[in-house]
Design brief:
Elements lengths: L2 H22 L5 H24 L14 E8 L4 E7 L4 H17 L10 H20 L3 H10 L1 H11 L4 H30 L4 H4 L9 H18 L8 H8 L2 H11 L1 H14 L1 H27 L4 H22 L2 H32 L10 H4 L1 H14 L7 H15 L1 H29 L6 H7 L10 H10 L4 E3 L5 E3 L2 H6 L3 H19 L2 H4 L3 H9 L4
Antiparallel strand pairs: 1-2, 3-4
Length: 544
């Protein structure tokens, strides 16, 4: 086994081993389980970075072939193989998955939502990482489906156990929609494998040996596209998303928005378009119309939202619309827009959900009309919120700009009345994003402090010589925020500290996302150079 193959296998196995380690810890060693799980997550990120450094590229060669792969028999009697690999399209998403997982695990060292049991939450996060990474690495359609299903039960548990008051209803809705998409995916996989005689994605994506007829390609593309549209989610199959985001704990929302949605957009580009390009070409106008509808619908719905996490959740519908519009154009520019849009959305929306979770932890509400005045009472918190919001609305120089801009440009490059109209409407959707995020900032950070915020920010009068413990009791009596001790249980803290100061866990989890949002915004080639050759080869099938 070569060093690249060893790194590839380690990227898949380390999260699984870490999950077993964290889950096996007894309750009295809950913090040790969290620390151990975080160490495994950090080791996995290191392995993924090393995997990229070990890549050997051939100048001038346009190809989709993986730069590291393992292909061994899995179920020989069924002609199934354990075939995994990483190429320029999947590698940035593998890095994003590893990064967000380690940040969420590290965040759990300081903050565990009720009912505690932080080691089990960390274990589920690592299982999610293993499943999502497997989706991005799978080069066999059956194996892809298996990994696609691995993430279902862990995410259900994260929402149903550590979520909000309506967590079970939201978790059930997530499962029902996901199962619907899974059934379509399974049928699509069956159609492809039975028609082509193979489930190998490398062979199926090779124009020289593509075995399916045009009619079967259209059928396969429709089945696969609808299945991935549920996961993306594409309007009108998006209704499970707001409830799941609103009720999920902070780390659950970050993983859900940051990488789990990318399974849908990645599957659409890498699997549906790669396996059935003729079907993609015939269905592209419909996909483009639905993507633009998602952009506009997401923006208009966000303008009417009054709850912080629901607004961010619906903004994901619009942002994923830009990703899907880029894919629908079937151009190199559009596919690059989809890839960098995926990365930017993971970074920026992950940061937004971290900040939204911090605000709800401090104030115990996400209602916008109760959160005004944070700029004066909690300047650091409102500053990070403002940074994430302007990055998400697509300000030039920040990561969110490139995916939206490239998607609109790709629509105009495609030409014709339909695509030009879609490009114009998508640009209007970008303006709507600016409108609802600026409205969010006006209501939450600016203006006079609401009674709730003013109460939480007011200093607590404490007599001279009072111990810190007594000061904490006085702070709790007037309604402080909540933090987490080593066992994961909540304890009161002073209002001023709870509202104004960023915790160590927040600084550790947020700083990398802030830095990478700036880096990708200023130098998009950091994300794009991995995928240039693969995207040119994929778009070359369509002569674009």
């Amino acid at each position: 086994m070569s060093s690249a193959q060893a790194l590839l296998l380690a990227a898949l196995l380390l999260p699984a081993i870490g999950a077993l380690f964290a889950a096996a810890m007894p309750g009295r060693l809950d913090r040790a389980g969290r620390v151990g799980g975080t160490v495994f997550a950090a080791a996995s990120l290191g392995v993924v970075v090393a995997l990229g450094l070990a890549r050997t590229a051939v100048p001038g060669v346009r190809r989709i072939e993986p730069f590291a792969e393992i292909d061994v028999p899995w179920a020989p009697t069924l002609s199934l193989r354990f075939h995994i690999g990483v190429d320029g399209i999947s590698y940035p998403l593998v890095v994003l998955t590893a990064l967000l997982t380690v940040l969420c695990c590290a965040y759990c060292l300081w903050r565990v939502p009720e009912p505690g049991r932080g080691r089990l939450l960390v274990a589920l996060l690592l299982v999610l990482q293993a499943g999502i990474t497997g989706v991005f690495l799978a080069l066999d359609l059956v194996l892809f489906f298996v990994f696609f299903e691995v993430v279902l039960l862990p995410m259900y548990a994260v929402i149903a156990v550590w979520g909000g008051s309506e967590r079970r209803r939201a978790a059930r809705k997530f499962v029902l929609y996901t199962l619907f998409g899974s059934v379509l995916l399974l049928v699509g996989v069956f159609v492809v494998v039975s028609s082509a005689g193979t489930g190998d994605l490398v062979a199926l994506s090779d124009p020289a040996v593509r075995p399916m007829s045009a009619g079967m390609q259209l059928l396969a593309f429709v089945l696969l596209a609808v299945a991935f549209a549920v996961k993306s989610p594409l309007w009108p199959l998006h209704t499970w998303l707001p409830a799941a985001h609103t009720e999920a704990p902070t780390v659950g929302s970050v993983i859900l928005a940051g990488v789990l949605l990318k399974m849908g957009t990645y599957g659409l580009l890498r699997v549906a378009v790669g396996v059935a390009p003729d079907g993609a070409a015939r269905a592209a106008p419909v996909l483009g119309i639905l993507a633009t509808a998602a952009i506009l619908a997401g923006g208009l719905i966000c303008l009417a939202q009054t709850e912080l996490k629901r607004l961010i959740a619906y903004s994901s519908v619009g942002h994923m619309g830009f990703v899907l519009l880029g894919v629908a154009t079937l151009t190199a520019t559009g596919m690059q827009a989809a890839l960098i849009g995926n990365i930017a959305h993971g970074l920026v929306t992950g940061l937004l959900f971290f900040v939204a979770g911090a605000i709800k932890d401090r104030t115990h509400t996400g209602e916008l009309d109760q959160l005004g005045g944070l700029r004066e009472t909690a300047p650091a918190l409102s500053g990070v919120l403002a940074f994430a919001a302007i990055a998400s609305l697509g300000l030039p120089g920040l990561a969110g700009f490139w995916g939206e801009a490239f998607a609109v440009v790709a629509a105009f490059q495609r030409g014709g009345g339909l695509w030009t109209t879609l490009g114009v409407l998508a640009a209007v959707g970008a303006a709507l994003a600016a409108a609802y995020f600026l409205r969010l900032l006006r209501r939450v950070t600016h203006g006079a402090a609401t009674p709730l915020v003013a109460q939480l920010a007011a200093p607590v009068p404490v007599a001279a010589g009072v111990s810190p413990a007594a000061e904490e009791d006085a702070a709790q009596a007037v309604g402080g925020g909540a933090t987490s001790d080593e066992s994961g249980s909540s304890r009161g803290v002073g209002p001023t500290r709870a509202l104004a100061r960023l915790t160590a866990g927040e600084l550790v989890a947020w700083a990398p996302l802030i830095v990478l949002t700036l880096v990708v915004g200023v130098a998009p080639a950091v994300a794009l150079h991995w995928s240039n050759a693969a995207v040119e080869a994929l778009a070359g099938v369509f002569g674009r």
